[in-house]
From TrEMBL:
Listed GO MF terms: ATP binding; ATP hydrolysis activity
Domain ABC transporter intervals: 4-237
Protein name: ABC transporter ATP-binding protein
SMART domains: AAA
Source organism phylogeny: Bacteria, Bacillati, Actinomycetota, Actinomycetes, Kitasatosporales
The keyword ATP-binding is annotated on this UniProt entry: yes
Keywords: ATP-binding, Nucleotide-binding, Transport
Species annotation: Streptomyces termitum
Length: 266
């Protein structure tokens, strides 16, 4: 399976209705860049504008200097692959057939799956740990298995940019770590939305924080994940310290006192 290439991404003043307001960010070639922020902050809206299911009302999305809005949908699909938040694959497809759909932008619409397409699909399924499920029908998969199958579909697409909306949703801890580690090893530029701040710190080169449709800050995990930022954006108290083994910032959330409950002095 041919690996994806790495291309830089630049988002300039991106807006969509009242859900996204002048958002800006960059992802250097090969970087894994995370979007964090509370529910309703605009993460999914931004990603949908990037992969083309929502039209931006202002701003530009540049991939290696090319404005994605100027590309035909087929050309855009060759360059940008996505793993959506709520996957709902065709119930009549096998897992192998679902993954092979990643080759569709590279073929004419009447062309079926070739032996090479299916070989690519099988290699991608092996890579995400689903090699033994290739002949199963998609509805028989668990939520986590379905998510990994969609990651495999994105892999066979061979994109320059990989966009993932909550890729660890429905996954147990082991597979959360496996999927994010896989994204890191691909060598492609990746943009992903995450709720788990510790996963974002461990797997992202840089992080951008969205609040009410605006990017409020961006930088390395150590620069962004501070108690002050977490309090201001999420409204919770937290301690942040480097992990003793990895040095990665680790967030420990502090429970809010229950009204009327006495604090122990022991």
């Amino acid at each position: 399976m041919t690996g994806p290439s790495a291309t830089g991404l630049s988002i300039e003043g991106l807006g969509h209705a009242d859900r996204l307001r002048g958002a800006h960010l960059t992802a250097r070639p090969g970087e894994t860049v995370g979007l964090i922020g509370p529910n309703g902050s605009g993460k999914t809206t931004l990603l949908r504008c990037v992969y083309g299911t929502l039209p931006a009302t202002s701003g530009r999305i540049l991939l290696d200097g090319t404005d994605l809005a100027r590309l035909a949908p087929r050309d855009r699909a060759r360059r940008v692959a996505t793993v959506p938040q709520d996957p709902d694959p065709d119930p009549d497809l096998t897992v192998r057939e679902l993954v092979a759909l990643g080759r569709s932008p590279h073929k004419r619409f009447w062309e079926g799956d070739t032996a090479e397409d299916l070989a690519r699909a099988d290699a991608a399924l092996d890579r995400v740990g689903l090699g033994g499920l290739a002949d199963r029908l998609c509805p028989t998969l668990s939520g986590g298995e379905r998510r990994r199958a969609l990651v495999a579909r994105a892999l066979v697409q061979g994109p320059e940019l990989l966009v993932l909306d909550e890729p660890t949703n429905h996954l147990d801890i082991r597979h959360q770590l496996d999927v994010l580690a896989l994204v890191r090893t691909l060598g492609t530029t990746s943009l992903l939305a995450l709720h788990d701040l510790n996963l974002a710190a461990a797997f992202c080169d840089r992080i951008y924080v969205l609040e009410a449709g605006r990017v409020v800050t961006g930088g390395t995990p150590a620069e962004v994940l501070t108690p002050a930022l977490i309090s201001a954006v999420y409204g919770v108290d937290a301690e942040v310290a480097p992990h003793p083994r990895t040095g990665v910032p680790t967030v420990l959330y502090l429970p809010s006192p229950v009204p009327g409950q006495k604090t122990s002095t022991m």
